[in-house]
């Protein structure tokens, strides 16, 4: 993730107001507004969006010809954004990669969203390992009994870029991989 992509994620997910940006209710901001606070032009922005290895951003053109950009997921709880994602039926099992040091706390309290809107779950072990390694070398991958959770009333969403989201995962649905 380049420095400029990091900056875009920071603005679109965490602190838009730090640059005077105002997200709409669904997290979109006019492309021109974002470009006005970045040291890059439209072509470079398009390239960052297209090349992002996790498809973190979406650009949409509206009927009135205006263009908007948002982060597909990962917003801070303090940024009131409704991504408008429909509930989705998760696969039998999802995965979560976390530093091994979190093991006792997670097995006791379950997975909590921390400062984000949701707990983020991965569709496979390799992806979960990558997520966990952002934070530590020693990574624990947990299996989440997602289908059972859903059957018992927990709501799941799948973001535009394939991340599974849910409010929290109680410990009884978790098993070290
Ligand atoms: C941990 C990246 C102790 C949790 C990724 C994680 C993801 C607990 C950390 C997205 C806990 C929160 C999100 C408990 C949860 N006790 N620790 N009870 N419950 N945790 O960054 O899932 O590159 O908010 O395991 O790919 O690491 O930004 O969540 O380690 O999709 O696009 O608390 O961020 O995407 O950390 O990552 P985060 P995450 P981007």
Describe this structure in words.
With 177 residues, this protein is of the alpha+beta class. It folds into two domains: 69 residues, Orthogonal Bundle (Arc Repressor Mutant, subunit A), CATH 1.10.10.970; 83 residues, ADP-ribosylation fold (Alpha-Beta Barrel), CATH 3.20.170. It is built from six helices and nine strands. It has a three-stranded antiparallel sheet with strand order 1-3-2. Strands 4-6-9 form a three-stranded antiparallel sheet. A three-stranded antiparallel sheet has the order 5-8-7, with no helix packed on it. A hairpin with a 5-residue loop joins β7 and β8. The longest helix is centred in the N-terminal third of the chain and has 12 residues. The protein is globular. The protein starts with a helix and ends with a strand. The site of ligand HQG has 16 residues, from α4.
The biggest beta sheet reads: 3 strands, antiparallel
> What is the 3D shape?
globular
Order of helices and strands: HEHHEEEHEHEHEEE
Q: What CATH architecture of the largest domain would you give?
A: Alpha-Beta Barrel
Query: How many strands in all?
Result: 9
Spatial strand sequence of the major β-sheet? 1-3-2
CATH class of the largest domain: Alpha Beta
Number of helices: 6
Q: What layout of secondary structure does this protein have?
A:
Layout: H1 3-14, E1 29-30, H2 31-36, H3 42-51, E2 57-61, E3 67-71, E4 94-99, H4 103-109, E5 119-121, H5 125-133, E6 139-144, H6 146-151, E7 156-158, E8 164-166, E9 174-176
Antiparallel strand pairs: 1-3, 2-3, 4-6, 5-8, 6-9, 7-8
Keywords: NAD, Transferase
Protein name: Probable RNA 2'-phosphotransferase
InterPro entries: Ptrans_KptA/Tpt1, RNA_2'-PTrans_C, RNA_2'-PTrans_KptA, RNA_2'-PTrans_N
